Amino acid sequence: MYPYATSAFITSLRFFVVCALLLGAVQEGYGQRVYAVTQQSSPTQQLLVILSQVTNQARAVDNDTLNYSTLSVTLGALGAITANQNLQFGDPKPTNNSPVILKFGSTSSLLNLLGGISVQRTNGGRTSPVAPSYSGTQLLNLLNLLGGPQIATAIIPSNGLAYDGVRLEVNTTLGGVLTANYYYAFYIKPPELQNNEIILCEGQSGEAIISNFHIENGTPYTYRLFSAQTGGTEAAPPTNSATLTVPSDLPAGSYWLEARENDIYPSARTEINVSVSSRPPAPTLNIHPNSQH
Predict the structure, then answer these.
(1) C-alpha to C-alpha distance for 114 and 123, rounded to whole angstroms
(2) Which domain of life is it from (predicted)?
């Protein structure tokens, strides 16, 4: 009985461990997210004491979205000592126009630390940054605080430049010890359409069918149509279904469809070409009375 009980206990323990890992992995929701899968970290700097380091590096790219790596700096001239970690995407890579989202935090309020934290996209690894770098007020404007001031996501907008990763860095600009936790980075898959060509007949609306429409944890993605690939204005009412209604009065031209998780985290946009077709004129029917001879 004892060996059996031990075996049963181990089996149960494994079951609960697997469940815990799975729950951690889906806590934030995967859905149409594509997560970074590899990382590169700055080496530890040490001079009598540790000046900068990155610990638990692999936690930022594992399947548990609740844990994190830790970046820290201690002593050094203002801004001279840094610690950074780059999270890099595999395949599929983000498009040049994909916003990238990263989650990070600290043990203190981020609002007081942003002068010593910067975020920048990369292309090819940790030492290949892509301009611009966001810090201070610029970074503050990109933050979505997650229920408190100590953990946030930053939505880094696209600027048309190629990238395959995003780097978080802390430095000694603020003149004291600074620690940041890096949870993960992801982008949202753009919408896929059954047909990118929509023909509007005069006075009739059209439909764009979203092939990869997604519902995450009971909440459908929101899809918004814009007049430009980046920026622009909304050109149609948003939808939370697989069918986007294209208004009958929409002028012919190119439009761009964006997916949003929780109507917060945006994808790159997918082009929709709209043309307008006038109905042919109704045929004229001439009725001639029978001639009598």
Answers:
(1) 24
(2) Bacteria
Q: Which two tokens stand for residue 212?
A: 């990869």
Quickly list H helices, the chain.
Answer: 2-26, 136-140
Both tokens of 92, joined, read: 């599929």
Cis geometry, peptide bond prior to residue 220 (ω within 30 degrees of 0)? no
The residues that bridge with 227 in the sheet, in sequence order, are none
Cβ within 8 Å of residue 152, ≥6 positions away: 103, 104, 105, 110, 143, 144, 145, 146
22 pLDDT higher than 70: no
**Cβ distance 70 to 55 under 8 Å?**
yes
Q: How confident is the model at residue 11 (pLDDT cuts 50, 70, 90)?
A: very low
Residue 16 has pLDDT above 80, yes or no: no
Least confident of 56-70, 186-200, 229-243, 272-286: 272-286
- Tell me the average pLDDT across 257-262: 97
Distance CA 102, CA 68 (A): 12
Which of the four pLDDT bands, split at 50, 70 and 90, describes residue 31? Answer: confident
Cα dist. 63→66, 139, 184, 185, 267 in Å? 9, 27, 10, 12, 21
Q: Which two tokens stand for residue 97?
A: 């126009």
Average pLDDT over residues 73-84: 82
Residues 9 and 12: their CA atoms lie apart, in Å, by 5
Picking from 91, 95, 87, the residue whose alpha carbon sits closest to that of residue 166 is 87
Q: If you search the block for the tokens 């007081």, which residue do you land on?
A: 112
Q: Is 185 helix (H, G, I), strand (E, B) or coil?
A: strand
Token pair 């907008």 is found at 157
Distance from CA of residue 56 to its chain's centroid?
A: 23
Alpha-carbon dihedral angle through residues 166, 170, 174, 177, given to the nearest 10 degrees: 160
CA–CA dist 65, 47 (Å, integer): 34
The average pLDDT across 89-116 equals 95
